[in-house]
Structures are given as C-alpha cells and as structure tokens.
Amino acid sequence: MTSEGWGTPPVEPISQHYIVCGGNALAHRLILELVEHYEVPVVVLVADRARDHAPRIEQLDGVAAVVEYTSITDEALRAVSIGTARGLALVEGSDQENIHAALSAQNHNPDIRIVFRMFNQRLGENIERLLRNGAALSGSATAAPAFAAAALGRPNSVEIEGRYLHIAFDDAITSDRVCVVADQIDRQDLSRIRLLPEQQGDSAEFVRLASEFGDDGPVRPGGVRREPAAGGDSAAEREPGGTAALQVLRIEPREPIGWWRRVRWQLLDTMRFFTSARMRLVLLTALAAVLMAFGVLWYLNRDFGWTVYISLLDLAGAAQPDQLADIAAGTGTGGFWQRVAQVVITICGITFAPVATAIAVEVLGSGRRGQPRNPGAGTRDHVIVVGLGNVGTRVATQLHDLGVPVVCMERDPQARGIAAVRALGIPVVMGDGPFEEQLRRARLKHSRALVAVSGDDATNLEAALEARHGNPEVRVVVRLFDDDFAGHFYKTLDNAASRSVSYLAAPAFAAALMGREVRGTLSVLRHVLLIAELAVEDGSGLIGLNRHDLEDPGGVRVIAVHFARGSALQWGLPDRTRQLAPGDRIVVAATRSGLARLNTVALEE
C-alpha cells in the first residue's frame, strides 16, 4: 500500500450515499443496518483491508465500494466522494482523530450529516455545537447499561420524561404493561424469538369470548367454556415459549442495598491491612490491654468522660505524669493502680501509632504513585469486570454508582480505564498470568457475577468458563460479537447472559445518521429494541397518519405521544384513529427494520 492510499473507489460517480469510516465490529454492524434496513448505498473507508472486520465488510451486498487509506485525510475524503454524500459515520479511531475528520468533512460538504464516536461525552457535546449537522455518540455508553443490568440479573431501563421503560419476562409481567415486545422466547434456540409480534386489537379477546359463549357459539351446558379439542390449535400450542413485555416505572429500579451491608463491606475491606496473623495477634492483645486499663481508670475515678479524655492522651503519649512532689503533697492523679493503667495504655499506644501511620501512607501513597488498589480480604458479594477498555470502564463505573462492590481485571498496564477506576477507589488485579490465578486474586469465590467485556470473544469466553469452574454459582455476562457463538453459549451455560456492544450501539448510530434520536436500547437476550422519539415536522410523511397506520405494517409500537396543543406526554394513546399534525412528537418502541421504515415514511413529502 502506498502512502497515498489505494482501494476500490466507485467506478462510476456516486452521490446521495453514506460513508462509514472504520473496519471494526461497530462499523460492520452499522453497515449491515444501513444496507439491510435503510437500503441506502454505502462507501466504506478502512485503514487496512486485510485486518479486523474489513474482509467481511467487502463481502456484504449493498456496499458500493471499500477504499483503503491509512488515515482520514482530505485526499481520502475526496476518494469516497465526500462532496456528494448525505452522511458520514466515524466509528473508529481516537476522539481527537474523529474530531479532526468531522471538521474536515464539514469543510468539504457543509450540509452533510456527521455522526462520530466519542468516549468523552462532554467533549462530544461541545464539538456538536461546532458542526452544522452533527451528533456525537458513545458506543460504550449505549451498551454499558445492558451489561451492568445483566450482571445484577435485572432489566436495564430507558428514561422518558421522568418515567423508566424496561423489559419484563414471563411471571414478572404486570397487568399495566405497555405492550408485548417478544414471544416464543426459547433460550435453547434464539432464532425462534419474534420481536414485536403481530398484536391483536383491544377487542380481540371479546370477539373470542363471543365465539365461544354467544348465542350461536359452541357453549357447553351450564355455560362452561368449551375445552379445545385434541389436536386443536390453542394459543399455547401456537405460541410456545416465554414472553417479554415493555413496562413503565415511575422510578428507576435500583439495586436494593441496605446501609448495614455497605457498612459491613467497608469494615471487611479494612481487613486487607491486617492480613498477617502475627500482626493481628499483637494488635488484639494491645487492644485488650487498653480496654482493661480503661476499665481500671473508670473504676478508680467513676467519671466516664474524664476516663476517655485521659486514655486518649495516654494513647497519644501526651499525658502528664505524676511528680514526686505531687505525690508527697497528696495532689497526684490518684494511686498506684491508676499509674500502672496509664503506663499500659501509653505502651500500647506506641504499638498502634506505626500501624495507623502505615495504613495512612498506603492509602494516600498508592494513589499518588498511580498504582491500582488490590482487593481486600474482606471483599464480598462483588462483581468482577474483566477488561478495562471503553465498555469495561463504563460498566465498572455504573456498578460503582449503584453502590455495588466492583473488582476489575486488566492485563494491559496502559489500559485507559485503569486511571478512571483507580480514581473511584475500585480495586484492580493486574498482570498477564493465567485466568485461574487472577480470578483467585479477585476473590471469585465470594463474588456474585463476572462481566467479561474485552475486545476478543475467545478471551471473554475463557474468562467466563474459568469463573464458572472456580465458582459454579457465579453469574457470567459475556461480550460476544458472533451470534452463533452466543447461541452455543446460551445452550451450554445457565445463569448466564451474552451481549454484543456493536449490536446494541449500531442501531443508534444508524438512526442518528438518518437524523433520528434514539433515546436508548433495551435488550431481549441477543435482540435489541429501540426506544426512539420522532418529531412531526412540516412536510413530513408522518402528517395525517394515525396509530393504526404506524403500527399495522409491523415492527413499531407507539408508546407515547406529545401533541403540539397539549402540555404533557400521553402514554398508551387510546385513540388509535387520531391523526398526527405538525409539531407533534411520538415515542415508539421499534425493531431496527421498523424504525428504518418510519424514517422512510417521515422523509416522504
């Protein structure tokens, strides 16, 4: 490859296309979203056609061209026809590289839609203000809630104007559910799941009852419901498997952690400073001696406050001893046994002082030296996060914010997440030894879950299997790109979950590239449900449509509407015939293809 770059530029001039810069897993998924669901021409710019996902990207139908350049330069942008493109997605490279590429692309085409990946979300918001038509997204921030929720064995949620949407399964589904989002759920065969299945109208149940109990319906004597005939097609026979539904909560479901458990964790964590049996014996003996001497002083003086005062002074070595003249004059502190007790407390204080100093130096000095803290002997009921890349760092941070104890594992001492978790006081197990030894140091035996989120499927699976071998009861959550791999994972292990960062994030990037706002993603095992908000603008194809028009083609459920003339969001709009008007906003739960269809309708004029 030459320094100027080479590849397969479009043979014919191309326009109104979308450019994806990157050859990683997110780029791969994003291209699939664009060509399969939005059906738009895509030109791909990669750094090396022989590495990462680039060879597979070249084989995708609908990709107009794959162009190879070592970096995103002005020449590279001209090679992919940036001047006539409708959108540009920057999903690989550092924050600085993506910012530079976004600003360069805007200079070539001021009207182009630019979506760029940023780990630093605050910086991304500021860069958005510099672009005429841009959006900064974080793939790790989009996917991390799903991993954190899976580790705790609960659904993640998406906030919509003070209410929280989440997925409930089977027995957890309540009567006030918004809609059924999946059925035929079989963990042994994930391909059977139907996402947003065709739903019957509100009167369907009454029609069914009328057919069985009406004047002409097949009614048993006494009005008893007729049982389905043998071999019939009852609902249970037609739709086997589990069910998932979308529900609304007024408060976000949080991990129920009592204050006593937090205090217990803190007390147990301090035990890491007393790992030596000899040190514990010396300190316990000294403590017992201090308590006995304290009891003697209290007995002799009968004043608890004064006893505490003089004992603390003795421990610090600051008490004033009796003088011979005071004893002769009868003005001493009072007796032989009191002086013995004070001497004992002072000597024991000499024992405690260096230990307290060593602990203070260890706590303060380790942070200044930039060294991560090791998990203590008292670490219990924690979550182990394997891999401190972008995703692992965000997962560890979210769990820590929930009050859940976290221990991280990382083999690369230069990983960007080490400094971030160290600032939060999260223990980190470093080293590139075997997983068995690292998991032992991370106190796997006492953990509740393990989340493996490194960038390599094989490494994540190895960590999960080693964790299950060391602790059969631990819950494992694994980051996997390959769907077939994930299917075998679900069939083999119980109390386990699998998530794909690119699968969760790619729909949000694709929708943003089309100018749509995705408020969040909810996972249904390996499938993803999008919660999106659409504005009905002048000239939009959504004008005049009602709920039937939006939902009947499938893949979309309208869960809330904000009418231009109203003041609040209306949940579960009962009037399915009311038409949308300019200024209205709708919140929908949609599959990837369903949201793509809505985008196509919205662009029609």
Features of this protein?
605 residues, alpha/beta, seven-stranded mixed beta sheet, six-stranded parallel beta sheet, 40% helix, disordered N terminus
Describe the structure.
With 605 residues, this protein is α/β, with parallel strands linked by helices. It is built from 21 helices and 23 strands. The strands form 4 sheets. The protein has a 7-stranded mixed β-sheet with strand order 1-4-3-2-5-6-7, sandwiched between helices. Strands 15-14-13-16-17-18 form a 6-stranded parallel β-sheet, sandwiched between helices. The protein has a 5-stranded antiparallel β-sheet with strand order 8-9-12-10-11, with no helix packed on it. Helix 16 crosses helix 17. The radius of gyration is 32 Å and the shape is elongated.
In short:
This protein has 605 residues and is an alpha/beta fold.
SSE blueprint:
Blueprint: E1 6-7, E2 18-21, H1 25-38, E3 42-46, H2 54-58, E4 63-68, H3 74-79, E5 87-90, H4 95-108, E6 113-117, H5 121-128, E7 134-137, H6 139-151, E8 157-160, E9 163-169, E10 179-185, E11 194-195, H7 204-213, H8 235-238, E12 242-249, H9 259-269, H10 277-301, H11 304-315, H12 324-329, H13 336-368, E13 383-386, H14 390-401, E14 406-410, H15 417-423, E15 428-430, H16 435-441, E16 449-452, H17 457-470, E17 475-479, H18 483-492, E18 496-499, H19 501-513, E19 517-524, E20 527-535, H20 547-551, E21 556-562, E22 570-571, E23 585-590, H21 592-603
Parallel strand pairs: 2-3, 2-5, 3-4, 5-6, 6-7, 13-14, 13-16, 14-15, 16-17, 17-18
Antiparallel strand pairs: 1-4, 8-9, 9-12, 10-11, 10-12, 19-20, 20-23, 21-22, 21-23
Helix pairs in contact: 1-19, 1-21, 6-14, 6-19, 10-11, 10-13, 11-13, 14-15, 16-17
